[in-house]
Structures are given as structure tokens and as C-alpha cells.
Amino acid sequence: MQLVSDLVAHLPEFRDVYEKHVFHQGGVLPHVFFWDVVQDTVRSFLGEGPSAADWRRTLAFLEEQSCRGVLGVDEVIVTSFLGDLPSPHEPGHAIVHQLPPVMAARFVRIRPRG
Questions:
Q1: Of 102 and 27, which is predicted with more confidence?
Q2: Half-sphere exposure of residue 33, counting CA atoms within 13 Å on the CB side?
Q3: pTM of the predicted model over 0.85
Q4: What does 6-64 look like in DSSP terms, one character per residue?
Q5: Which range of residues forms the domain containing residue 86?
């Protein structure tokens, strides 16, 4: 999927995760790959992932992609990124208050209670 390729090109910190997926699965399943993107992004937000891509850059990239309105891209970002962000009782939930406008609106639609 182009979204995964573009993410890795824009944020090379995700290359190791990408290569592990390719090795173990013979390719990349975007929804599975994005579970790791969420985990690394939240670790970065919490200051626990010194080698992870900066969470601000990840959110900015995903916001840019969200603004394009490409159906498959939106599905992956909404379902497998926004939908997997920490719940209110989990560490890192405050990242939802940092979501850029388009992603924030989509997050509220899928998870109105946070």
C-alpha cells in the first residue's frame, strides 16, 4: 500500500518495523503494520522511545494524508491508527488532544468518549 511506503520514506525510523513485517509476513499488511506505528508514536509522545520517529512528525504526516481523502488511506488511518490510540485510562491518552484538525474530527466520530 502506498501509505505505508510513503510513511517509511518520510519517516525512516519506521524502516525496521517495515522490514520485520516484510520478513515475517512476506509483505506488509497495513492494518497490522499500523499497530506498531501507534505503539512507537505513543512511546515517542511519552518520551520512552528515543529511537522512535518524533510523534509530531508522524501526526503531521498522517494529517497530510488524511486531508487527501483517499478511501483506503482514510480507512487505515481511522481504523488502525486513531482507533488504536490509548483509551482514557491508559498511558499516552493525552496524545489525542494533540491530534491535528482532520484527524481530531475523525477521532471524535469513532470514539466520542475518548
A1: 102
A2: 26
A3: yes
A4: HHHHH-GGGHHHHHHHHHHHSS--HHHHHHHHHHHHHHHHTT--TTSPPHHHHHHHHHH
A5: 2-110
Evaluate the CA torsion angle 83, 85, 87, 93 in order and state its sign: negative
Rounded to whole angstroms, the Cα distance separating 88 from 84 reads 12
Please tell me the distance from the alpha carbon of residue 48 to that of residue 71, in angstroms, as a whole number: 33
In this predicted model, what pLDDT tens digit does every residue of 32-64 receive, in sequence order? Answer: 999 999 999 999 999 998 888 999 999 999 999
For 66, what's the count of Cα atoms within 13 Å in the CB-facing half-sphere?
Answer: 21
Task: Report residue 22 CA to chain centroid gap.
Answer: 18
15-33: buried (b, 16+ CB within 10 Å) or exposed (e) per residue? eebbeebeeeeeebebeeb
Place of cell 522512535: 52
CA–CA distance, 24 with 66 (Å, rounded to integer): 28
Counting the structural domains of the chain, the total is 1
CB 85 within 8 A of CB 107: yes
